[in-house]
Design a protein that fits this description.
Order of helices and strands: HHHHHHHHHHHH
Shape: globular
Oligomer: single chain
Helix content: 40-55%
Length: 234
């Protein structure tokens, strides 16, 4: 929070930024494809250290072979490794999927539990993944603090915290709970397209007038426009 800003004005500024981002990205959503909570849980785990586009590319083959937790828990390791191989770290990711699916079968009858406390107990599932699943598969509000969200929350002066859980709580206090899931999408979309970690496109940013970090990147409109991506990560 800027030194001369009150808690009340911080809330007003934060909500204004979110409203403008909502208008800027009316199609903002989870960029991972899924048909049900199990699929979303699996593809979110697989998205670590790769791109959503690559995960979406292997998804049809993956779920054609293993449509539910029971099938995936019984998967042949080598076959599963072959499917997720293009995503990198395929041995570790295969191990995660086998353990995750087995835990769902053993502890939850093969169903994805719609509770944060249960989700974070699953192998390989942290708060970020749990909130993605809760917000997008179950409609239960959650804040997804990925690298984009955390970076923008700090640039906007909403928090100085770097720990994802502390960022989640600090930002959550500024917004109605009902807005948390879409807020996450707005910041992640903006972070992927405009507010990059290196050379943010400040001169092309729709919320520049409310951003304390304005000037961290090029402010010339033409130069900044060249940095804008029309899509998320490739």
């Amino acid at each position: 929070m800027p030194a001369d800003e009150t808690p009340t004005s911080l809330v007003r500024r934060a909500r204004k930024i979110d409203r403008v981002l909502a208008q800027t990205y009316p199609d903002a959503r989870c960029e991972l494809d899924f048909d049900d909570p199990f699929q979303l849980l699996v593809v979110t785990v697989l998205s670590a250290q790769t791109t959503d586009k690559r995960v979406n590319a292997v998804r049809p083959r993956l779920f054609a072979a293993y449509p539910d937790a029971q099938a995936m828990a019984a998967a042949d390791r080598a076959t599963l490794e072959g499917i997720v191989g293009p995503l990198g770290f395929f041995r570790a990711k295969t191990e995660s999927l086998l353990k995750l699916s087995a835990a769902l079968v053993e502890d939850h009858g093969g169903e994805v539990p719609p509770r944060l406390a249960d989700l974070v107990k699953l192998p390989g599932v942290g708060r970020k993944t749990a909130n993605v699943v809760l917000g997008n598969a179950f409609g239960i509000p959650g804040i997804t603090v990925d690298t984009h969200f955390g970076r923008l929350a700090r640039r906007f002066g909403w928090t100085e915290e770097t720990d994802p859980v502390k960022v989640e709580h600090a930002v959550g206090a500024l917004f109605p709970k009902r807005d948390w899931t879409m807020l996450s999408h707005h910041l992640i979309w903006h972070g992927r397209r405009v507010c990059h970690s290196q050379k943010p496109a400040c001169g092309a940013c729709p919320v520049a007038r409310w951003c304390p970090a304005y000037g961290a990147g090029p402010t010339d409109p033409d130069e900044a426009a060249k940095l804008v991506k029309t899509e998320g990560r490739a």
